[in-house]
Amino acid sequence: MKPAPFVRHVPRTLDEALGLLSQLAGQEGRILAGGQSLVPIMAFRLAKPAHLIDINEVAGLDRLESDGKALSIGARVRHGAFHKLAVDNPLGALLTFVARHIAHYPIRMRGTFCGSLAHADPASEWCLTAATLDATMVAKSSRGTREIAARDFFEGIMSTALAEDELLAEVRLPLLAPDAKFGFNEFSRRAGDFAMASSLVTYRIVGGKMTDTRVGVGGAEAAPRRITEAEATLNGQTPNDAAFREAARVASDALDPLEDHQTNAEYRRDLVRAVVRRALENSLP
Amino acid sequence: MNAPTKGTGMKWVGRSIRRLEDPALVRGEGHFTADLPATHWVRFVRSPMAAGVINSITAPDGAMVITAADLRGVKKITPMLYKFNYRPVGQPILAEGVVRFVSEAVAAVVASSEEEAEDIADLVELDISETPPLVDAHDALKQGAPQIHAEAPGNIIVHGAHKTAGFVDAWASADKIIKVDARSHRQNATPMEARAAHAAFDKSTGRVTLTCTTQMPHVARTAIADLLGMPESDLRVIAPDVGGAFGQKMSLCTEYVLLVWLARKLKSTVAWTEDRRENLIASFHSRDQHVTLEGAFDANAKLLALRADVVANIGAYSCYPNTAGMEPLMAMAEMPGPYDVQQYQCLARGVLTNTCTMAAYRGVSRPVITFTLERLMDRAANAFAIDPVDIRRRNLIDTFPYTSVTGLVFDEATYKGTLEMAVKAIDVPAFRARQKEARAKGRHLGIGFATFSERTGYGSPAFAARGMAITPGWETVHVSVDPSGYVEARIGASPHGQGLRTTLAQIIADELGIPPDMIKVVHGDTDTAPYGWGTFASRSLVISGGATLIAARKVRAKLIRIASHMLEAAESDIVLEDNRANVAGTDRSIPIATMAREIYTQAHRFNGEIEPGLSESGTYDPPGTFSNACHVAVVELDAETGFVKIERYLVAEDAGRIINPMIADGQVHGGVAQGIGNALLEEIIYDESGGILTANLADYMPPTAHEMPTIELHHIETLSTQSITKAKGLGEGGAIGAPAAVLNAINDALTPFGVEIDTIPATPQRIRALLRGAPNSVRSRESGNPGATS
């Protein structure tokens, strides 16, 4: 479990980093941020990058701030930054709640939000968050800057719309309505393990009825996504157990479940039904 | 002790003194094999295929790559059992001609660093023609299945059978026959330190020092010297601090043999440190058994007869020195557990497959047979509509000595006593009330009991009964008081976390009147320790402790003679305490250090009546003594996800005299943690081609602190008559009882659904699969709607 040989580059500016990336991407060059996913797979030699472009010294990538519409999260912002409220908006509380479910404390102090999205593990809590809230990804390369919507970003298991010379420099999460409610739930066999299914929900209550409902499911398909069929069953309902249960059933039925040695398709659907219902239940005051 | 030091009697035995081994370990100052520098590092190239013919192995230019072709003259590891139709099969140090399991070592790369060795290993090309693999033991038993070893027809390496004369009549007279079809999936002991070895050649003497993480340094020396054809005196084996072993480091590994061979070939220093992935796929596995157990009960739910069929998937080779007979034969011998049953039929087979070799893991077979038998007792209780506690009361043995149907002699123990203690402490009526209330709200609680015996401290007759070519059992200890009055005990046991440096010091302290912090227990170096069998099978405190007591008593007798001589008093008036010899009823006294100095440096003063020096030896080879315990688990089952949370865990334990209660409790805690892992989480999963899907600690899941409940411990101390310290062993009981208690608790929680699970680990996926097919729909917690499982 020793990584294959590689060269580490430590740029100090974004331009320098993007220059290195454009030069080395074709020679198996990879960005190193927190390293909590990349380094273990290098140790197993499942990944053998010849060059690592370490962005931990790049100025300006640690930005975490709101412009009143969205929260901007730079490429060096660690999971642990969300242990406290990042923004005075229900989004801040949502991120704090979700962050506590990511792996273990030491991993949260090193791993980065953007790195998690660029890695695109289907079980990632932040990928689920980005997909559910329709985040905007800001991809930069020496060719320029482009924005990618979350629904276009996640393409499959550990596969994204980023080109090989693009750095995920920033992610923008839209702020929630001041009266928005949220709920999150995930299932794993041990504390801190990858979620075998997870769900994030947000909605508002107007005139006693649920509205603007978002139901995201992660860890169950090749990529996390909103389940619009489940959202449709909830909009216009009073929040109640029967409605939550029906939405959970619809979400579970709508899936194309991932299968692995500890989770066959039937069991994955069971778990999705449980986590969606529980996320909705958790959203209640 | 029998002859307590006059005056205060036992001062140290029975006290929770802090472990003498801990300060260095907690400061990070321990010595581990992988800390040693080396000139050469080895990386093994392992088979990617479960079965196949090796066509060629191509090394990159300039690389040093060792293959079987280089090892001509090195014998195969071929452990032997002279009974039970055992078929000896040999394991080459590197695969020879064929591969028999995924991760079998095919070649060894030698380079100047671990990194470089791994880089080169990536470039070694293996050309292997795949042949059909056998992964499941039942497939290996089928007619016409490929033969894994020509020496073992039908892939059966060991075949034990037992049938009592009155079995058929007893079976026919039964009121009810109850059956359990139990499956224990494959597991890994997962010591925190994986395997590691370091072999250093000494050019001046021609000797090799092998430092390695092992439980049996002397046995490793004997075995490796045999295989390489070298005098044992040319090999020194050192077990330094060992970071956990749990049985996995008991068997001889091919890798260590290769390292000694390489050190001699290169006349240099060679090291290998196993990584976690290798440990999970290539180190020894355990627990892979399928047991079908039937019990014949009379109308009063009294067990009349047991019938068992044991199929153990022992993997591709036989482990040394225990052999592949260990799991199936222990299952056969100990299946009846702590219950009185007079008639028994058993067929126990060890089956070869194209999987990693199975060897010892804490409890060996008993976690599996105890879980099977305890499921049988609970299922029978249901069939007779009596309480699970009652069926145990009716069947547990309570007169001693008791000779079991397989001829084991059970010494005095408290099978019923610990059960009643646990029943009272857990408050069963209160639990049943809470369970009923919870069920009405759609929450599913369950309680499970496990009562069992733990055979410990057994000497050479017990191993000889198995017909082993290598028969371990006895232990020797040398106890010396040096001229400064400090004590050194050299032991043949090889502790690696059990706290023997402390507990043996406590035993010596009480004999000699010298405090434990002046007593060093030295082990793990074949150049300094007496020949011994190491530490395994809950034996060391009983056997090495007994040998320690024998040696310490001899030293004590000599000290008393010296004191009598120097103080001019009768031997019967001498009292040893607080580092002094006192004459009872007087103020005459002399420090032990002064006496020690005298017997070494002024020996002539004793006029030839007392031999110079102060060093004695003791050897002990006991028959064995049974510990016992009752475990109780209380669980909550999440019917929606199949998740099981252990809410409460209680152990009532009787391990005879407790030398150090804190260390005893620690043994139970650690065992229960592993047992809970076995019950709920840990499983090595092979795919159909023989590849391992669980090769990291995200996929192979030992429990973490989050998954562990608080463990409540209660003790009874029944002084053993079969152990001169009166102590019994207790290293494995925690692991033996936990799967049974947890599975019974899960099944109690499942009662309303009308389904049962008899598989470990009882994973959430397995539980949900049962619930989806459950005949009964049950109120679910959340809505009150029927059909939580729909």
Task: Explain what this protein looks like in three dimensions.
- The complex is a heterodimer of chains A (285) and B (790).
- Chain A has 3 domains: 7-57, Uridine Diphospho-n-acetylenolpyruvylglucosamine Reductase, domain 2 (2-Layer Sandwich), CATH 3.30.43; 64-174, Uridine Diphospho-n-acetylenolpyruvylglucosamine Reductase, domain 3 (2-Layer Sandwich), CATH 3.30.465; 181-283, CO dehydrogenase flavoprotein, C-terminal domain (Enolase-like, domain 1, 2-Layer Sandwich), CATH 3.30.390.
- Chain A is 31% helix and 26% strand.
- Chain A has helices at 14-24, 38-43, 90-99, 105-108, 113-119, 125-132, 150-153, 228-234, 241-253, 265-283; strands at residues 7-9, 29-32, 51-54, 64-66, 70-74, 136-141, 144-149, 154-156, 159-160, 167-174, 181-187, 197-206, 209-218, 225-226.
- Chain A starts with 6 loop residues before the first strand and ends with a helix.
- The model of chain A has no long low-confidence stretch (mean pLDDT 97).
- Among the domains of chain B are: 366-458 and 623-772, Aldehyde oxidase/xanthine dehydrogenase, molybdopterin binding domain (Aldehyde Oxidoreductase, domain 4, 2-Layer Sandwich); 474-620, Aldehyde Oxidoreductase, domain 4.
- Chain B contains 19 helices and 29 strands.
- Chain B has a 7-stranded mixed sheet with strand order 3-5-1-12-9-10-11.
- In chain B, β27, α17 (661-681) and β28 (711-716) form a beta-alpha-beta unit.
- The longest helix of chain B has 28 residues, at 540-567.
- Classes of the chains: A alpha+beta (285), B alpha+beta (790).
- Chain A binds chain B through residues 1-2, 4-5, 44-45, 187, 189-194, 241-242, 245, 261-264, 266-267, 270-271, 273-274, 277, 281, and chain B through 114-115, 118-119, 122, 275-277, 640-643, 681, 685, 687, 693-694, 696, 698-699, 701, 703-704, 706-707, 763-765, 768-769, 772, 782-783, 785.
Structural class of chain A: alpha+beta
Tell me how many strands of chain A there are. 14
pLDDT average of chain B, as an integer?
95
Order of helical and strand elements of chain A: EHEHEEEHHHHEEHEEEEEEEHHH
